[in-house]
Each structure stands twice: as structure tokens, then as C-alpha cells.
Design a protein that fits this description.
265 residues, Rossmann fold, 8-stranded mixed beta sheet
Length: 265
């Protein structure tokens, strides 16, 4: 039995909701959530990706430009979550975003239980999804807080650069506050190092410092800098569909395998 065939037999007992978060932009956050979702769907897991970023990069990066309802209409009560679903491929579904979502930051301010809006929406999802991923904005505003309150776990993409350690420390402090005050079940699944250049001394040093300072919280899979990864969104495709034999694709395939291992053992 091949490894891929084995992954089809791994059964996810309970649906998990996972926010992909980093308050700093340019960390390959959307690339990571789109690529990981695509590979997990390819491994037979049923995936829902919620684009919760007003920039809507996950939506455009998957080539979705013909939709009637978005997560904004769901949040504002104008549509149900089922009305907004877009099928990307077998086992892979998207709830798209648009720039209208930026208005939700203001509209939610005076709403009762404003931090729990997305959690209530996800509670009404069918239970046959294995994983629900939420692509969050590159900030720690009300949308990201909603995402964290709705989630079981957090996945943190980190660019291999000088400020990564400082940024991760700040984010971990924020996650602790969310856990203490709004969502006691929230756990850190781990951080994945992105845009890694093995030729650069700085990248190697950052990698070593992250492993040393955050033991057990860093995925062993490292995502390299890759032209193909950068090109794929402009073609409206994940790296699996765009360049499956590229080094970036192989890295995200390894990450998906490691992710499934973490979620089952």
C-alpha cells in the first residue's frame, strides 16, 4: 500500500476548525491554507475553506470569480452558509470573500456577542467535513478574533526572517488572551516556516532559533521560496493543480502528511 493510499484510510473522528493566522503580512498565509487544503482534499479528506480576509486572496487564488453570496452575506444574515458554498473540486469547498467583508469590522462593533458571530455560523455546518480552515486577515482585529473564537486549533505560517521570533511571541500572547477570555478549547497546532532559502545564512539562523525557542510547536516540514508557488494564484490554481512536481508542491504535500499525523496520533 502506498503512503497516499494509506492516507485515504485515516479517519477523522470529529470535524476540526483551524484558523491560519499571522498578524504580519507576507508570510505565505493564504498560499499555505490553499495548498494544504488542496492536498488534504486530494488525500480524501472533506475540506471547507472559509475566506475571512477582505482582500479575498484565497478566493481569487482558487480562480473563483463567479459567485452570488460570500461570507459577508452570511455574517450579515442575508444568506445561509449553504447558499454561499462553492465547490472547487472533489472534497474541497470554499466560502468566498469580497471586499465587502471590510465593512464587517465596523458593523460588528455594536452587535451583541460580536466575537461569536462566525462560531455560530460554523455550528450550523453539516458534520461531514473533516477540516474547516479559516484564512484570516493579516491583523488582529475583530474578524481575526471571530476566527479564533470559532476555532479548535491555530496554524501559524512564519516567514524565515529576522522579525519572525518577535512576531511569533506577540501572536502567542494574543492567543493566550483569547483562550483565557473567549475560547478555552483553543490550541496551537503549530507553526510552519515559509519562504525558506537554504542558501541564506539568516534563514538557517531563524530556523534554528525557532526550533530552540518553541520546541514542539514547529512543523518539521519547511516551505521553500519558489517561483511556482508565487505564480500559481495568478492562474487561479493551487500549487497541486498548477505545478505538482515543483519543490513547493512537494513541500506542501509533506506538510499535509505531517498535518494528518499530528491530527491522529
Amino acid at each position: 500500500m502506498t503512503l497516499v493510499n494509506f492516507l485515504f484510510f485515516i479517519k477523522i473522528e470529529i470535524m476540526k476548525t483551524i484558523s491560519v493566522v499571522n498578524q504580519k503580512g507576507g508570510t505565505a498565509k493564504t498560499t499555505t491554507v490553499v495548498s494544504l487544503s488542496s492536498y488534504l482534499a486530494n488525500f480524501g479528506k472533506k475540506i471547507l475553506l472559509i475566506d475571512f480576509d477582505p482582500q479575498a486572496n484565497a478566493t481569487s487564488g482558487l480562480g473563483v470569480n463567479d459567485f452570488k453570496k460570500t461570507i459577508y452575506e452570511v455574517l450579515s444574515g442575508q444568506a445561509s452558509i449553504l447558499e454561499s458554498l462553492v465547490k472547487i473540486k472533489e472534497n474541497f469547498y470554499l466560502i468566498p470573500a469580497s471586499e465587502n467583508l471590510a465593512g464587517a469590522n465596523i458593523e460588528l462593533v455594536n452587535e451583541p456577542d460580536r466575537e461569536f458571530k462566525l462560531a455560530k455560523i460554523i455550528d450550523h455546518l453539516p458534520s461531514d467535513y473533516d477540516f474547516v480552515f479559516i484564512d484570516t486577515p493579516p491583523s488582529l482585529g475583530l474578524l481575526t478574533i471571530n476566527s479564533l473564537v470559532a476555532s479548535d486549533e491555530v496554524l501559524i505560517p512564519i516567514q524565515a526572517e529576522y522579525y519572525a521570533l518577535e512576531g511569533l511571541g506577540q501572536l502567542l500572547n494574543t492567543l493566550n488572551l483569547i483562550k483565557e477570555n473567549l475560547n478555552q478549547k483553543l490550541k496551537i497546532l503549530g507553526a510552519v516556516i515559509t519562504m525558506y532559502d537554504e542558501r541564506a545564512k539568516l534563514s538557517r539562523e531563524v530556523l534554528e532559533e525557532l526550533y530552540k525557542n518553541f520546541p514542539g510547536r514547529i512543523f518539521r516540514t519547511v516551505i521553500p521560496r519558489s517561483v511556482k508557488l508565487a505564480e500559481a494564484p495568478s492562474f487561479g490554481k493551487s500549487i497541486l493543480e498548477y505545478a505538482p512536481n515543483s519543490k513547493g508542491a512537494r513541500a506542501y504535500q509533506r506538510l499535509a502528511i505531517e498535518f494528518l499525523y499530528y491530527n491522529n496520533f
